[in-house]
Amino acid sequence: MLRDDDTLFAALIARDPSYEGFAYVGVKTTGIFCRLTCPARKPKRHNVVFFSCRDAAQDAGFRPCLRCKPLDSRRPTSGAFEALRDRIKAEPERRWSTEDVRALGYDPSTVRRAFQREYGVTFAQYARSQRLGLAVNTLQQGGTVMDAQLDAGYESGSGFRDAIGRLIGDAPIRTSARQILTAQWLDTPIGAMLAVVDDTGIHLLEFAERKALPTEIERLRKRVGPICFGQHPMLDTLARQVELYFAGRSVAFDLPIVQKGTPFEATVWDALRRIPAGTTRSYGEIAHSIDRPDAPRAVARANGANQVAIIVPCHRVIGADGSLTGYGGKIWRKQWLLEHERRVATALSKG
């Protein structure tokens, strides 16, 4: 990744997120340092100095910006987003209304946009998914339909049945007999990820901003079964390993991957997992490694069909000329992940 000051200043003006955690800007006129994505008014070129880490900025006498909070490990979100997300987790059975949001001092339209930006769904949709996930969990554990209805905060039995039917395609009374995939949002420094698991392993791990995510979810429903939000031991372990990965403490994942694909796709995905962290391979190199030197385009398609990001590291595949080719989670994230892994791999090899 280029690090000359002109490149970094252009990234500052563009609020380029690919430098998140790898570059900081100190503003000489204010004595503060910021992320390159800071929403504050941009300083003039001659008034800035760049740093590769937060410690260097502080050692030079700069104070952390109170707006973009560069000392925080996660990218900043709105106070309304964090507060309401925590309230939903504390009260998953509550049915939220716009009046409830206003009563807490937040603008409903602002809250809607904040959740849409982070998770790709509105606040109401996020709250509903958590509420219905709680209900399905009650049914799966042998609870009555009435118990589940009350847990989910539904006063109307018909409304509850309709909601469950839309969620998993079955009537509540039959839900306890079905194997249901469990989903949850995982927050990372470069955006929320959707994880979907069952007792056998991980079926999906994707960034919320991936355009193909709705299609992937629908395909997963058809291939495997219904999906609902809830708690699962596999999700707890995955969340811990994802946190360690983004904290730079580990690049290893040891959970089973059970995404379904063609035999060729499965072969490519296995090859992806053999690419060491901190390195890259071209589509042609992958094709040769699986004894299909004539199939780099097929490898590219299989790479794009991968639904388990980071663990099946499709971001480690680049063009033959070294270019960062298409990535469903957006090119800047691919760049970020490669730089992150390069640094972590170097640090772990020295340690």
Tell me briefly what this model is.
With about 350 residues, this protein is α/β, with parallel strands linked by helices.
User: What is the beta-strand fraction?
Assistant: 5-15%
- Number of beta-strand segments: 10
CATH architecture of the largest domain: Orthogonal Bundle
The total number of structural domains is 3
> What sequence of helices (H) and strands (E) makes up the elements?
HEEEHEHHHHHHHEEEHEHHEHHEH
Main sheet: strands, sense, barrel: 4 strands, mixed
- Which strand order does the major sheet show? 3-1-2-4
Structural class: alpha/beta
Binding site for Zn(2+): 34, 38, 65, 68
Active site: 34 (nucleophile), 314 (nucleophile)
Protein name: methylated-DNA--[protein]-cysteine S-methyltransferase
InterPro entries: Ada-like_dom_sf, Ada_DNA_repair_Zn-bd, Bifunct_regulatory_prot_Ada, HTH_AraC, MethylDNA_cys_MeTrfase_AS, MethylDNA_cys_MeTrfase_DNA-bd, MethylDNA_cys_MeTrfase_DNAb, MethylG_MeTrfase_N
Q: What's the SSE blueprint?
A:
Blueprint (H helix, E strand, L loop, with lengths): L4 H10 L9 E4 L4 E4 L12 E4 L2 H6 L3 E2 L14 H12 L7 H6 L4 H12 L3 H18 L4 H7 L5 H12 L3 H4 L5 E6 L6 E6 L2 E7 L5 H11 L3 E3 L3 H14 L16 H11 L7 E2 H7 L6 H10 L11 E2 L12 H20 L1
Parallel strand pairs: 2-4, 5-8, 9-10
Antiparallel strand pairs: 1-2, 1-3, 5-6, 6-7
